[in-house]
Amino acid sequence: MKKSYKILSSLVLGSTLTTSVALGATNELSKVMKERGLSEIDVIRAAKTYNPTGIKDKYVVFSSGGQSGQVIVYGVPSMRILKYIGVFTPEPWQGYGYDKDSLAILRQGNIRGKEINWGDTHHPALSETDGKYDGKWLAINDKANPRIAIIDLGDFETKQIVPNPVFKSDHGGAFFTPNSEFIIEAAQYAAPFDNEYHPIEDYKETYRGGVTMWKFDPKIGRILPKDSFTIEFPPYHQDLSDAGKGESNGWGFTNSFNTEMYTGGIEVGMPPNEAGMSRNDTDFLHVYNWKKLAELAKNPKNVKIVNDHRVIPIDVAVKNNALFLIPEAKSPHGVDVSPDGRYIIVCGKLDTHASVYDFRKIKKLIDNKEYSGKDPYGIPILDMKKSLHGQLELGLGPLHNQYSPIDGQVYTSLYVDSQVVKWDYKKLKVLDKENVHYNIGHLAGMEGKSADPQGEYIIALNKLSIDRFQNVGPLHPQNHQLIDISGKTMDLLVDMPLPLGEPHQAVAIRASKLHPHVRYKMGTNSKTGKEHIGKTLAGQERIERKGNHVTVYATLVRSHINPERITVNKGDLVTIHMTNLERAQDETHGFTIDNYNQHGSLEPGETTTLEFVADMEGVFPYYCTEFCSALHLEMMGYLMVKDPNKKYESAQKLKMKSMTTQELKAEYDKTVAVNKATDAVIQSVVKFLKDNKFENHKVVADLVTDALDQYNKIPEQKKKSDEAFKKGDIEKAILFENMIWQLMVKTADVGIRAKDTLVRKIATKQSASAARGEKAFAEGGCNGCHVIGKVSSGPDLTGVLQRHENGVKWVSKFILEPETMYDDPYVKGMIDYFNLKMPNQHMTEEETKDIIEYLKWIDENANLF
Ligand code: K7E
Ligand code: CUA
């Protein structure tokens, strides 16, 4: 233990074990390791995944949320969850499915008029340019109710849901073609394309599989259903798919199971599906020329129209040399094209092998029309052996693949063996295996399915977690395990429980490729990206009534909702357009009306609409649901619903004691004086900011803009106050003065944040020791009494080292053992003055040294505080 511990110390701290600082940290580290039972390797793994506060991740992962119908966003290597995106399922936090605009998106997903409020998301896909992720759009499929959704990575919101017009389930989607021209969606369970009943006995004749090629416009980020088409396939159950790239660009690959076309019937004494559907030794990989088929689809002669959608029949595809089959080991699962597009790896699932197909060989057979036969639907079959580069035994249950930046290397998940295997698909050699827990499905590499894999990490998406976490009842969370693949052998770093549905595929992208916006242009409908019809600016708030339709144009800004009373009749249709007038980063307001099942989330600049029938009489508070400011609880109002057939009598009789004019005047004077003093503080901050050229620092300049936003509202309130005062309504004048104070507090709040940020920007760089000292100063509670640059409940510490002879020694001693110095005349005087004694905070020698360094740094920058 001792020996290995020394190695660790030098690993963590460099080789300078001689300084006492290092020794202090080492002692602390060894204590923590002992207490928590951590080994050296554990600590190294922790260091590889730990992000100190404020430090961001290198990669962002988009994981399917399985039966949750959502998408989960998290960071790598920290494995911190960043967001759940509502896609096929309502998501209350973001108001998704609760406000009118997002409900319209969710309802695009209606199938034959039926509302569907969940999905089974499997495969998220990032949009591509030249086969590389461009960070613009994310598509994901719903297996249960065959649909594709599009998420805008400008704001991580779902913008479009497109139901498949002919499939009754899907699986092999979503996959972008290399320049995002199309999104592939392959069917799963064969079914009739039309919406009628067809007896199962007619399966071979009337049931069909296929691949829908969804035309995508990468500029606007939308699927164009009218320009899309489906390629009809035999009623084999199609499974995963992938788009060719590089030399296989223009081609698509979709595998299948149940080429036996078995239809089961346990209830009538037939052997179950699983027996009949895995009877043959091989199934078929579908190989199709989507580029050619897209051209063919433009001619009405080549398509039949089913449910208002173009379908290319099998015989048309065959006649035009655009559809082929290649045998593959039975019931395969993943099919993944290599970064250069030459190889296609198909995983065995029931077979222990992975099969590596060579597109060059496939292409040659196709060009030479060298077929080994035809399937019952007339589709040419290519010889398996002649198409293969080779096969390699990997282990039990190979499922999915992710590529490495190293030529020829690939990572494959082994479901039954619960392992990730690293192997060379060119030399057909296993290189390494790593155990995972348990039963891995997909695995996610960093851009591992793009033309530009990054390596570094693999995430194992495990189906079972069993004993990895606290028992939270029979339904366990999923477990995503982060594996370091940067070394010669793989190393499992950390587990992340994922309690939201069963993720299937996840895709990772370099965070540097994402550029989401911070706020919306004022009045934006985030769902369309255009100006919202209900956009309302300050001063335009109003309530309009047309018959029994009441339309409210409302605004939200810290800390009020305007209007604050909405009175309607029972039975009225109420439309509330709301605009969040904030421009400050992260100043979201939420809006709900109690008991009315309404919720909207308004990001800065966003406009959204709530719409409902006021079918219950009564008084219903509405309020902001985000703790947005110190006066967040006051951000409320009332929806009053009157029954027009009832007569309401006034109940007013409580007489409140009113204030005398003199008392009112006194309160008014006091409020005005407080405002003046507050303004003086603001002006001093403004002077500091200007003197130090805040405009040279964008972050600071942004904060100043936010602060001015608040400050510039003051003159209008002042005018109202003065008018009221002139008219003798002192009560009202006081209220407006109070509003001015609220605006000043908000201004000061942001202004001081701007000042602090600016100080950091222009101060001299802190030494490591001074930085630790600042932390110790804060964590030790010193800042409770000592505010730098100010006398508060303790003296200002600026210049403290100069105040005493031998300042460093004096201050160190005072920190370490203050009680021994209470009788020092200077200390005594201070104790009398502040009515407080400096307590012993039990700082260590090292911490004290660091704090002294911090105080030195303060003195260097004394002009800034
Ligand atoms: Cu293997 Cu739907 Cu991609 Cu689950 S799928 S694991
Ligand atoms: Cu706005 Cu709370």
Automatic annotation (TrEMBL):
SUPFAM superfamilies: Cupredoxins, Cytochrome c, Nitrous oxide reductase, N-terminal domain. It is found in: Cell envelope. Its EC number is 1.7.2.4. Keywords: Copper, Heme, Iron, Metal-binding, Oxidoreductase, Signal. InterPro entries: Cupredoxin, Cyt_c-like_dom, Cyt_c-like_dom_sf, EfeO_Cupredoxin, N2O_reductase_N, N2OR_C, Nitrous_oxide_Rdtase_Sec-dep, Nos_propeller. Residues 1-24 form the signal peptide. CDD domains: N2OR_C (cd04223). Gene3D superfamilies: Cupredoxins - blue copper proteins, Cytochrome c-like domain, YVTN repeat-like/Quinoprotein amine dehydrogenase. GO terms for molecular function: electron transfer activity; heme binding; metal ion binding; nitrous-oxide reductase activity. Residues 768-859 form the Cytochrome c domain. GO terms for cellular component: cell envelope. NCBIfam families: nitrous_NosZ_Gp. This is Cytochrome C.
